[in-house]
Design goal:
This protein is 35% helix and 21% strand. The protein contains 14 helices and 20 strands. The protein has helices spanning 15-30, 54-70, 82-87, 89-94, 110-119, 170-174, 182-194, 219-230, 249-257, 274-280, 286-299, 318-331, 358-381, 463-474; strands at residues 6-11, 34-35, 44-49, 76-81, 100-103, 126-128, 146-149, 152-156, 158-159, 178-179, 199-203, 236-239, 264-266, 304-311, 335-340, 387-397, 409-415, 426-429, 437-445, 450-454.
Length: 475
Amino acid sequence: MVRPKTFHLVSLGCAKNTVDSESMAQLMARDGYQARVDPNQAEVLIVNTCGFIGPARDESYQVLGELAVKKRPDQWLIAAGCLSQRYGAEVIQHVPGVDGLLGTRRWMDILDLVGKLRRRTNPEPLYHLPDQAITVGRDEGNVLRVAKQGCSAYLKIADGCRRPCAFCAIPLIKGTLISRPMENILAEARALQAAGVREIILIAQDITDWGHELGQREGLSTLLEALVRETPEIDWIRILYNFPGSVTDRQIETMAVHNQLIPYFDMPLQHAHPDTLRRMRRPANMDWVYRTLEKMRSALPGLALRSTFIVGYPGETEEEFQTLLDFVEEIRFDRLGVFTFSFEPGTTSEPLGDPIPQDVKEERKDRLMRLQQRISLEKNQELVGKTLDVLIEGQGQYEECGETTAGKAIAVGRSYRDAPEIDGLVFVEGSPPLGEIVPVRITGAMPYDLSGAVDTGRNIITLEGLSESAMAKQS
């Protein structure tokens, strides 16, 4: 009896990595491989690694090391993705049991590498790490560049980045911006619509830069308008990672007039003090930030605003950090991520070193997150008594919550204010159907999450109502 070809795949890091992992899995399945949850039942072990910052590298090495220790002689271990692309042979030195390296720019060659491992006549590791990025969209193995999770799906529209941010290793790993062709993106969006997906999440390192090297002006707005035309049955289209200074009036207007383009805006600002931003080689025009956020809040009623910040960047003084605190207090973001500076050799910030002690970084992170926790709770409390559309993603029961609730049904979902994995949840009493978007009357607020019950009344705040309000305001 011939054993079936099998593989086990672990995806680490961001949603963009998840898309690459799903693409590799599609290629493996097309070649007759069967996926296995248990690594002991697979002959090919693949870890799609992350190597962006120190903690991500540590996790990648840990997962690879655990698989290497338990690996049998008839199994092959492949380290794919960002860690392999950036560090190459160092990965083998760190984890001797790795059989092959596959760079993030050549995920579509997974079958070629597996085939070479099968034909290998000596135990030497195999390297597949081309220096040059490829033209994505034209050499992708004819697979969908999506990662479907329940009734939501990530759709990658570009890879790489041409921005000069001093702290960031993405250009070292991914190369410069390469936009995927519009026809590929639209075809995949139509396929997701046909599969019953309710939410499409567009992702890229810098989504506002889509089409730049293709000669597109206002490329993102053009793409969004086409997506709305092509996928009328998709309820929510969410865009992530808008670059400061690149958001245009047309993009804001496009989001305002199409109710599928939900009023959720993620713009990683990284800091608020101009001097810090200049050292980061980031846009430092804070007047533009204030004006743009004011425009967006005026055009998009109910706007959920998200950003990320880095604390402890080299040279950050207490005064500069206080400017960041004051800015967050003033803007009152709905969602916020905070990271301590991670020293990355090879980036343009390397000459600055890492002079701020880790305990100072952690203390600043804690102060900023305590401030945001209060703001987030206050903004969530303002929603109590209102009704929001919620995409139901899970069902279960209350456990040990008191005599009145123990054993009762509960569902979990997200409103338009919540991106998967990074934002909050809405806990809903009862058992509304999975995959449906239902109106939920909010009855409770926590710092990051909400709770409520299905609203059977008529006074429902929907995204369509928000869009109509925006259109009336513009007319």
